[in-house]
Amino acid sequence: MTTHATLNSTAPEPRSAVLDDAHIGDIKGALGTIRLDDDTPRHGLSARLKTLLAIVGPGLIVMVGDNDAGAFSTYGQAGQNYGTKLLWTLLMLVPVLYVNQEMVLRLGAVTGVGHARLILERFGRFWGAFSVIDLFLLNALTLVTEFIGVTLAAGYLGLPKVASVVLAAGIIIASAFTGSFQRFERVAVTLCIGSLLLVPIYFMIHPRTSQMAHDFVVPSMPGGTGELAAVMLVIVSIVGTTVAPWQLFFQQSYVIDKRITPRFMKYEKADLWIGIVIVIVGAAAMMGLTAAAFAGTDGFGQFSDAAAVARGIEDKAGHLAGVLFAVALLDASIIGAFAVSLSTAYAIGDVFGIKHSLHRGVKGAKGFYGIYAGLVVAAAAITLLSTDYTQGLMTQFVQVLAGVLLPSATVFLLLLCNDKAVLGPWVNGPKTNAFTAAVVGVLVMLSLILTAAVVWPDISSEAILWIMAGCGVAGVLVAGYSFTAGRRGTKEDPLPASGRGYPHDRTGRENWRMPPLETLGKPVMSTARKVGMGALRAYLLLAMAMVVVKIVQTALDH
Question: What are the beta bridge partners of residue 27?
Fold first, then answer.
């Protein structure tokens, strides 16, 4: 602890808020190491580049992991059914991705405590239990969709289904069971590099670059008004697969496990931007190459699954292109499974006080590794035992559930990032609050549309437009209130050296860490916040009940 104090403060440091002491030590990344007592200023391009390489990992993995099996299906459907006309949704999501993930990396670096534990401690047992239970359920089902991606890729490549699923599960488990954070990250970063296979496929198919550039920056809605419900469902699916609840829990815990502190915040933000660029390029490539592969064919507008997309690519550009796509799908499924499994194991370990670090061997964190392996084995078994119909039903359920839970996850993220006891000088500024409030409004709108479109498949375009209009007005009002209130509370920029003039002194931020949780005073619940939390609880319970009823009805009808 003495070296930790040397690095992070000029006075003796009180007890740390970090829950697992394995989270304190040298930063051992896939591409470099930074010693705990290394407080040398980074001057010059070479020193900064070496530091960035050592830090790279959390942002890259969480973003590339988001282009998983579900993403291949979603982007493939968008390209095959609507060409490149929905590319603009990816540009729209860039600021959402950055703001959401920047807030969780800030929480991780400053607090040293995972997302689920912070919710439990700051909002009570109900919301703490809810966050862990819904994350566990959603991640378990998402993990099944990753193995469904493995079976689709294996089927196209002519590999046996059972052997492929068992081998993939073995790789996912073995990579984490080495007892070395650095070895795990090297495997994960290698898989991230493998995601770039989509680039040569793109050039083999040659989509029209000018058309893609136009559709990337000019919004349009394909089809007529009668198809609005179907198009909106695809748009919501794109949002749901690009901004997922598990990302928030994963990146915050992974930043902590990698031992990143506020001192390296700017490097971690650069890591996040690298991941965002790769994920958006990959998503755009998938949408563009799929659109070009099916343009003018009988398969246009007839999406079924990612394996059919691979066959369409083969028909357009040859067998090698189809094989590369299937390998990319397999790669994406495995890295997605890595991230989803880890986010669950981290969260449960955080809440229940179980040792939860990849720096520990299996004997030193049996519960953590047991949860991780148990999830993987269960998901693999469910995939092997399920039929094509149940797999499709499960994929639908995962999409809807993610859409329902995403707004609540963002609300808690926003509240935590305005908690002065938790983030001190790192709390949000008014611009971030206003933008995030608007994002929450949009996510609630999309969640309502997704839920309504699945529960009532015959919902009219007029009803969807009314939902959009109502949520849009509410979002603008909330954003305006947040910005106005924020102007009275904090400033986005650091204080001058005197530390006077603004309510929050942001000087010395690099050395500020959250005190132990038990020393923090409980947040004051205003009447407005109590009403809002009650409304959020009612919304979640009602929406989830409706989704469960619909899924059961669909299964019984079948």
Answer: 34
